[in-house]
Each structure stands twice: as structure tokens, then as C-alpha cells.
Amino acid sequence: MAYPTASALTVGFDLDMTLIDSRPGIHACYTALAERTGTYIDADLAVTRLGPPLVEELANWFPAEHVTEMADLYRSMYPAHAITGTAALPGAREAVDAVGRAGGRSVVVTAKYEPNARLHLDHLGIEPDALVGDLWAEQKARALREHGAQVYVGDHEGDVRGARAAGALSVTVATGPFTEAQLHTVGADVVLRDLTEFPAWLTGHLQTSAV
What we know:
six-stranded parallel beta sheet; 211 residues; single chain; alpha/beta; 10 helices
């Protein structure tokens, strides 16, 4: 794989459990949805398996014919319940800023509904150059290719699959549902403890690529 110079660098980032710890906000939103609909949802369980599209989780709690309707309702409730309770993960802002300092561009590519993803980024002061939502696993490759991303940073097997499909380097952080060992097992090219390690990794990566 040929790696870019810093001036051509574009790095993609996943959102949930890569840049942000969205578990408290999502837990609150699932709890509110359960109260509103009278349907049992185990919010504690749901937040342990973040990553796949919302409809996949809702299918565990609602009949198939109601999942789309419930997804729309959840998304409409999300701003009121999930934004203020969500924090940036350690090193998130610094990781995005490191790409800019290296002369590159950053793009967040996430399975989350894009308007709600934007609310998170704005609330937390994380400023990528672009945002693309509503894409999961291999679907993420479309946005990564369109933006010319050579690196994709995520926390989930789906993120590794997305990077692979885009021909990008898969960099992962063990801040989501997968341990460092599991991320190696599913084929990540690079495994970091968290994003606090990303700026140093990026510097070394660019230096090595320039040789």
C-alpha cells in the first residue's frame, strides 16, 4: 500500500466510542423511548453493543413492521436526551487537531443519523473537515473513497471492514466493545489503547511513509 505525504493526508474517524462516549446519552434515549412506547428495552445491554445501525438494535425490542417508525421516533427524541450527557473520549479533540497540524484533512464517517452526529460534534467542539452519517461497515468505504481517506480510525470490527473495503489503513482504539486482542484478531492494521496515542502514532506513520 502506498502512503501519502502529509499534504495529501486524509484521515477518517468513526464517532461512537471512537471520538465520543455516547453510552450515557444513548442509554437515556432508549430509556425515554421505552417509557414513551410502553415497550421494554434493556438499555444497559443495548449500550454494550454500539456500532451497528440503530435499526439492528431496535429489531431486538420491536416487531419488524414497527422498527422503521421507532427509529424515526428515537432520532427525533435523541437531541433532547443524548447530547448533553455525552462526553468526548480522551484524546479525541487532539487526534482530530493532529491531522490538521500535519497538513491533512479529517472526516467523520459514522453509522449515526447525520444531523444528530453533527449535534455531538458541535456540542463538544470537535471540528472535522467533513461529516458523513448513516453508513455502516463496508458502506463506509463509499465516503472514505470519496474523501480520499488513506486511514480510518474506529473501535469496532465494522470499522475494520469499512477501512479494508476502502483500501485504507485500519487504525483502531480499544475504547469500544472490542479489546485490543480482539481488534488484532479481526484484522486491524494498528491497535491503540485510546486516541491519546494517536498523535504520536500519526507522526511516526508520516515519517516512515516519507522514507
